[in-house]
Design brief:
The protein is an alpha/beta fold. It contains 7 helices and 9 strands; from the N terminus they run βαβαβαβαβαββαβαβ. It has a single domain (6-239), classed as Rossmann fold (3-Layer(aba) Sandwich), CATH 3.40.50.720. Strands 3-2-1-4-5-6-9 form a 7-stranded parallel beta sheet, with helices on both faces. Strands 7-8 form a two-stranded parallel ribbon. Helix 1 packs parallel to helix 2, helix 1 (15-26) packs across helix 7 and helix 3 (66-80) packs parallel to helix 4 (103-131). The longest helix is centred in the middle third of the chain and has 29 residues, at 103-131. The model has no long low-confidence stretch (mean pLDDT 96).
Length: 245
Amino acid sequence: MSDERIAIVTGSGKGIGRGIAQRLAAAGMTIVVNYQKDVASAQETLALVQAHAPRSIVVQADVATPEGAKRLVDETLARLGRVDVLVNNAGPFLVKSVFETEIDEWRRILDGNLSSTFYCAKFALAPMRAQRSGHIINLGSLNAETARGAPTTAAYNAAKTGVIVLTKSLARSEARYGIRCNVVNPGFIETYATTEADRRELPSLVPLGSLGSAQDIAEVIAFLVSDKARYITGAVINVHGGLWV
């Protein structure tokens, strides 16, 4: 029996998702790189992870839809035979008040962050239950477990708070099948979307005095899906440099 472990990382064409995919590949896992539109970035990620895990693949799927999430899991099973780790990283962001938020924007943020997490977990659970093992890591947001008011990010924060409840519910229901489920909440993380203004202004808000990196998030996830974290499920881990503690 092969010791190969298969990890799906949604939204792993770039940014935090790419960092997670690279770290898990370095840990010996075969990666399913997922993207929605940017095929060039996804291929770049694939080349990076294949340096460590040559059987890694790329799958285009819009996980904000049930059809896309199902296709992602089905193709993983068809090509690689199992699913050991699911990292729900994909999720759009929106800066608008409730008054300014359009109905279609509300749906896009909830579908992209909360529904996508539900869909991917739902379809991954059957093979994980059959294996009687698995790990689901969901990406939340800054202090999402505290349900703070968010005047300009109401839709996003509502979705990510929902991710916390969903994860804890999964942790309770799936533990009997050997499946662990945890949340990682990133703080201010430097990515391709970080502006010069962010680099100037945000570090002063963080007690540790700097922006985080995708590697900071990836290291925590690599630990959580390892045997060293075998007794951790239903946890919410903030990786934010001490911001808003």
